[in-house]
Amino acid sequence: MKTRLIDLNDTELFVSGDPHAAWAHLRRESPVYWNDVGDGNGFWALTRYQDIADVYRDPAAFSSSQGTVMGGSYRSGADSASGRMLICSDPPEHRLLRQQLHQGFTPDMVRRVSACVTENVRAAVDRLLAAGGGDFATEVAPVLPAGLLRAVFDLDRDQIQHLLGVTRAMIGHRDPEWHNGRDETMTLVGTQVEILDLFAELIERRRREPGDDLVSLLLQSEINGRPMTESQILYNCLNVAVGGNETTPYTATAGVLALIEHPDQADRFARDAALLPTAVEEIFRWTSTNAYVQRTATRDVEIRGTLIGRGQSVTLWNASANRDEDQFPDAGRFDLARTPNQHIAFGIGAHRCIGMNPARAEITILFEHLRSLGVRFQLAGPIERLRSNFMLGIKHMPVTVTVTR
Ligand code: HEM
């Protein structure tokens, strides 16, 4: 494969190609790669674990304020989310916002999420077993974030379904399945407005009738002695909802696919309950749903002797770092007993995923339940991948199921 042929902005590579072959090539031949997109524009792509870790740990030189997704899923610096939404903030604003959000991400919150997710998983898996199979990606995986939304925002069933649909379209805005007659940009903008409207209404309701949900908590919190502004609350609810809704279902579906494709590991998992903790981490490493995050260079910086210009976009490919042979022996092997396993599916440093604990709980509950029932999956048709280079998602995965216990 020739380096110049690799375009990490081409969603075709992610829908029908094999991005792992492209990343492996870049790690070897061009670890600091200028991905030209024409007209003198482009972005840097880092694919080695150590380079990516170094950039994550240097927010002074590599800012998040211009947005962490190319094309603006978490809007760019020119707009109002910058400095107000956790994921698009730099120190010191980031630290102040994160302290407020942290109050909602407690062990008690993880317990409430776990209770809702357990109930949902049992019901969804029962339905799948009764039918002998179905589309795992649409019938089972989404019940994970549905449980989280109930526990964190205290939303009802209809609100949850609505929010799940809009966040899916927002993150999948490059995929025609969610266009509804609109183009990519209008899908992105329209869905963001819809999510913000939904949370604006929720804020009004919680002002009148506070509860013990995240919105009520943020309405009472203060930054430097001042209440959080409505826009800070809105943007951070959007950040939590989008961060929470899309990642875990795509991880769950890709995790089941990995078990189907590695029957030796599925057998091992079925036999040994003690594998669960390392199995969950290996599923996060292997699937790396959040393929990259973007930073913007605040000054000229050299990486491996290559000059990154001030203002240029630098993308950190977590999905590649998690298969880097220098960090993971036999990195291309799906190994449910892998240890140590310092994967960076959740990022590194100050922005490291705030939802990591509930995410771990969701994936653990699902795979433990499937294991305890002895559920085995077979593909019943072709899988369909999401047209996105940011979220490595499987949007349809027809399966049949058998129970071995
Ligand atoms: C498989 C599951 C998940 C993966 C792979 C994942 C991945 C990530 C990554 C890579 C980051 C770092 C972004 C950066 O450095 O710019 C991040 C941040 C974040 N995630 Fe997650 N995430 C997951 C689940 C969740 C869940 C369940 C929630 C909410 C309940 C969530 C909410 C957030 C938020 C709010 C941030 C921003 C944190 C900050 O900037 O300080 N994520 N996530």
From TrEMBL:
Classification via InterPro entries: Cyt_P450, Cyt_P450_B, Cyt_P450_CS, Cyt_P450_sf
Keyword hit for Metal-binding: yes
Ranges in coiled-coil conformation: none
Entries under SUPFAM superfamilies matching the protein: Cytochrome P450
Pfam families assigned to the protein according to its UniProt record, in alphabetical order: p450 (PF00067)
Domain of life: Bacteria
Keyword annotations: Heme, Iron, Metal-binding, Monooxygenase, Oxidoreductase
UniProt similarity note: Belongs to the cytochrome P450 family.
Name by which UniProt lists this protein: Cytochrome P450
Organism expressing this protein natively: Dactylosporangium fulvum
